[in-house]
Amino acid sequence: MRKRNFFYLLILGLLAIFMVACSAADNAASATDPEEGTETTEESESNEGNDGDTIKVGILHSLSGTMAISETSVQQAELLAIEEINENGGVLGKQLEPVIEDGASDWPTFAEKANKLLQQDEVATIFGGWTSASRKAMLPVVEEHNGLLFYPVQYEGMEDSPNIFYTGAAPNQQIVPAVDWLLENRGDSFFLLGSDYVFPRTANAAIRAQLENEGAELVGEEYTPLGHTDYNTVIAKIRNENPDVIFNTLNGDSNVAFFKQLKDAGITSDDITVLSVSVAEEEIKGIGADVIEGHLTSWNYYQTTDTPENEEFVASYQAEYGEDAVTADPIEAGYFGVYLWAKAVEEAGTTDVDEVREAAKGITFDAPNGTVTIDGDNQHVYKTVRIGEVQSDGMISELWQTEEPVKPDPYLDEYDWASDLSESLAE
Amino acid sequence: MNEIILTLFNGISLGSILLLIALGLAITFGLMNVINMAHGELIMVGAYITYVIQTIFMNYAPPEYFDLYFIISIPVALIVAAGIGMLLEVSLIRHLYKRPLDSLLATWGVGLILQQTARSIFGAPNVGVTSPSFLTGGLEVGSLILPYSRLFILGLSIVCLFSIFYYFYRTASGRRVRAVMQNRQMAECLGVSTRKVDMLTFAIGSGFAGVAGCALTLLGAIGPTIGTSYIIDAFMVVVVGGVGALFGAVSGAFGIGILNTIFEYVTNATLGKVLIFIVIIAFLQWRPSGLVMSRSRSLD
């Protein structure tokens, strides 16, 4: 009798862990957190409506749970921007008052908190989200209440909501140019390696179509479960195929295991180039710069990006959050999103959502990554694309960048080869 | 031919990792019937110990001795994890021996507390551990490269296995442990201090989790949640192998490791994982008590 009970218990326990592991897994992109993920969970229950001198803005990121690792630093960047704006006199002569909520890495919670921010706190806009799942959860809420959301992370595209401003990269601002660059500079046999969920699969579908169009060779495509840590077999397959390039859409901890084991297997960046789209400065710290040195990344911004705005941004970010804090692409996108919104409000002369949206068209801001412009057609931003190489000190040095900021194209409409793709993927 | 050898090596290598993370559990869960959900976090403790010792060496030791940090980490991880295990046993597990469901919940809670503690001390992002130079690269056998880190883990798991075997089957103290686990009352009547034995056994099981954590730094990420990614595998090995049997754990670990690698090689990683679970479920239908049946006198 006891034995049987035991068995049930065991199953129960395993199930519980499995659920945690699954939720821990949807680790959308990079980890970017200079401090711990637990501070600043201040709830602003005490606010009693607008008192006229302040404008409330919602900040909705995961401050607890598995995504806190990445989202806390984006939240910090947004708070930094708010602080700076307030020091310079605020927006429309009023101070910004952040209302901070915790999405807790749980998508229903994101929807619920977005609802609370819009209904109860009546915030002028929300800055928040990281994973596509959290964005998809907030989307119907902001549309229903005609709210605004500034979403700061690169994503798989195939979306444009009138109530969301996308300050991260669309696929044509990160993935498509990276493939082009690799074809030109590193060879034309590709191996696609990704985590097994929506972003890598969507991105790789686009890459497949692009490779076919360019007449390049796809020698292998592998997906591993999120959190997967044993890459020996995948590496054996890669060695068999001997590609010129591995296009890496792995997410989270798997990157550490993959790069360590790749190096142990004797494959260096001289043999096969790995280009990653979810590894930024903070991840490199966790992987170990000596392990990933020489491999490539594709983003719109690096800590080393050479603009006067960036010098200032990195200095103030590190002054606020510590010498060791590193900045990264989503951190920067969260930061300039606040400024873009503030400029749009100034332009509109009001925080009314419809008027702000109208005024936001074509608004520009000199962000750390260069001048960004809101595209009136789809509410994404024009961004410069940058390919970089990881250095031994963990920083990324640029190898190449687009001459001008690239027009965002979330549905890849501009590319003939993607015409079937966007239909099949955009449901 | 090369492919077969490489797949076999990868399978054995995965098996040795599984064995290493499951050895501690084979003692606490297998022998003591404590469902220790904090086992993964004890692995995490071992991993962070390695990180801490590495940092100390980096900052204070002359660079030519840097590689030594890893050799020192292993016993330190063993001792610290065993210490935490002992503390856990005295303060919590001891009161829950007869209540497995409660021990599951309580140790689950302990696991979360340990995770949060690690997050507070080291921060939420992963930390990097540099492999010692003698473990980077690999042994070239013909056209194959067998990574030294994998060979090292294989060796380490064999050493751990034999030291556990020697302790339980060849020493007086180990015999007392087995006596208590098989028939507590009888052992008590014969003058064995069951309390002490329980504490010691749990500490040993925890200690080997620490060693596993140390070895895992060679492979992947060191973060607060490192434990959760390995604990399912650990339970899987012990259940398949047969609760209460050390050699069950060995056969379970290598069986699962090799089969998983073959599945993954033939299909892909996701499907491989699904297939291995299907095989395990089917296997447990056929042999509910695992590969190696343990005979005990206890009336359960």
Automatic annotation (TrEMBL), chain A:
Residues 33-51 have a biased composition (Acidic residues). Keywords: Signal. Pfam families: Peripla_BP_5. Residues 29-54 are annotated as: Disordered. Residues 1-24 form the signal peptide. SUPFAM superfamilies: Periplasmic binding protein-like I (SSF53822). This is Urea ABC transporter substrate-binding protein.
From TrEMBL, chain B:
It comes from the Bacteria. The keyword Iron-sulfur does not apply. GO terms for molecular function: transmembrane transporter activity. The chain crosses the membrane at residues 12-35, 42-62, 68-88, 151-169, 200-222, 234-259, 265-286. It is a multi-pass membrane protein. One of its GO terms (cellular component) is plasma membrane. Keywords: Amino-acid transport, Cell membrane, Membrane, Transmembrane, Transmembrane helix, Transport. It is found in: Cell membrane. GO terms for biological process: amino acid transport. Belongs to the binding-protein-dependent transport system permease family. LivHM subfamily. This is Urea ABC transporter permease subunit UrtB.
